[in-house]
Amino acid sequence: MENRIKLIRAGLIGLVALAMSLFFNPFAPALAAEANQYFPETGHTVSGKFLDYWNNNGGLTTYGYPITDAQMETDPETGKQFLTQWFERHRLELHPENAGTKYEVLAGLLGKDLRREALTVDPDFVKADVLYNNAYSKEVQWYFLETGHNLRFHFLEYWQQNGGLERFGYPISEEHSEIDPETGNVYVMQWFERARFESHLENANTPYDILLGLLGKQIKTPKAGSVEFMWEIGGNNFNDLKKPRRVAVDGQGNVFVADTDNHRIQKFDRNGTFLARWGNGGNGDGQFNSPQGIAVDSQGNVYVADTNNHRIQKFDKNGQFLARWGNGGNGDGQFWFPKGIAVDGQGNIFIGDTYNGRIQKFDGNGNFLLKWDCGEITAIAVDGQGNLHVADSGNHRIQKFDKNGKFLTKWGSYGGENGQFNSPTGIAVDDQGNVYVADSWNDRIQKLDGNGNFLLKWGRQAIADGQFNYPEGIAVDGQGNFYVADTWNKRIQKFDKNGRFLTKWGSFGKGDGLFVNLRGIALDGQGNVYIADENNIQKFDESGKFLLKWGGCYYGCGDGQFALNPSGIAVDGQGNLYVADTNNHRIQKFDKNGRFLTNWGSQGEGDGQFSDLGAIAVNGQSNVIVADSGNNRIQKFDSSGRFLTKWGSWGSEDAQFNQPNGIAVDNQSNVFVVDSGNHRIQKFDKNGKFLTKWGSYGNVDGQFIDPTEISVDGQGNVFVADTNNNRIQKFRQR
Questions:
Q1: N- to C-terminal Cα distance for the chain?
Q2: For all residues of the chain together, what is the average pLDDT?
Q3: Taking the model in full, what pTM does it have?
Q4: What is the number of structural domains in the chain?
Q5: Does the UniProt entry include the keyword Phosphoprotein (predicted)?
């Protein structure tokens, strides 16, 4: 790919602290002579050079209201002091060593300060490849070698017009969706050394469609009890796919993928090089709920079968929303989980209205034309000769028919080799007759010629170091290192406190150190690692060396044995081990050598009874706290199994649960519950009093899809196994 990398070189003077000899406030002599402005909204005054800078560089729109007065602060990196004043969106700093230059007042490096840990581990913050869309000028698509990030289109325009490098610094992330911790709203964002840009679609066609994040307020005056996203590891990078169900190809050979379980559309060139993406989970314009169909017309417009929203959405070739039609039902123009979609040479749209068992035909504007009954079609594509290609998902094959329905040929079988499929559910044909198949359960795209001969593939499962395939367990040691039960990859991965990969161990099998269905994970005070596998407990040292195991049985198990898949495991201060023996509906207690001590519980809804046990945790008083998932409640016991209290019921209100699976306690004995079915975390005090909650359904930073496990380190940082997003997220409590 030909591309010119835009290099920005600037002799920006670095941040140097005020000399220690300046013990007096440099503003003091200026306050009487220079202008000052009092802001009753926050009760603070801005004066002198800070007021001049504030007025001349965007004022309220750019910086917000002052939230402190001018004050001396220490730079945590250099130990030097300088004068600062905090605003809702920024921190201004006075640099007398730059007196007489435009750098005498600088905006602080708040973006870099807030995302320092993310820079080396988070997929959105680590150095990225150059992105270039040849449909647009290179002048609106820049890449910065200094930080290894792209800055494009609307964000680039705002950066250029509002101070550029001097005011905002270099980009330190790619564009991505994230939750604003101050408002709880989801925005497309990009982080810079000194700022965070937010795209506010509700302000479209106004001067406020891009705003700076409230970084000053987030750091200096956070909401009480708020939780701030810090980073994620794992998840999906630009060209990672999660159960892609459909593909479509335009006239230039660009490939559009309905990245179903990521609730977005991705665009690649004909060689599989990433170009663009759009969408996230939701039901607004441009949002999706498991899109499973996609097609492109001759003008490059993209039509998406937004399956679980029971509608069709139309976009231009760059992902700009144009129109939508349909809702849930069986009338003309209504749909029930539509999955298949295709466009013919005249621009007519054919919809596989899957669970209504029919095909509906529309013009390019969504006007209903006709319908006919058929079977449960999951994907359809039409080639230039009018031949129809059908993804026969249940038989793991592709079938080809002429325009009158006459059978022509078929290819494919079950498997993971080239030309084989595992539930293919999407298909498209380019203008050379090549066929692109969304090989969904193999997490890849395959390209074949018109006769079914394999040509190439791309996409991958998350098997590399630092990636996950359905992580279900997480635990943190005393040094802040954390261990992840990477369930479907049959291994344990270990990371340092900043998310950097350290080591891994395990693979599929029933021998020592091998795993079949690992789920729970716990650590003792000596750093030993305990794993709840299919029907046994395995013990390892901190480096992954196998030490011992116990358990074993499937049904009708005795003391010290487990039925299939014990789901939770925890260790108390004395090294005793507690296991949630899920399918026996009981808790079992062992000493550190695996010797059976006691058990309690049975199936039911009474106090001390359980249904579908989830995770288990032990607080500093050796009380045992259990996620009683099937009963949608939390139960608390002493170390001998004596019932103490319970809280919760089914629902989505505060202190209600929908399948609580994960549980953890901090060093104040506060209880954190992974409310899996509600896709959120809830926090309670040690007596079960509700304190706060965060999260919602989705794949942006701070959202979850079926999270299952949680752990809290000694500093109160919270780590969540965001299972169906295949990632770990870290949060900081305020």
A1: 46
A2: 80
A3: 0.58
A4: 3
A5: no
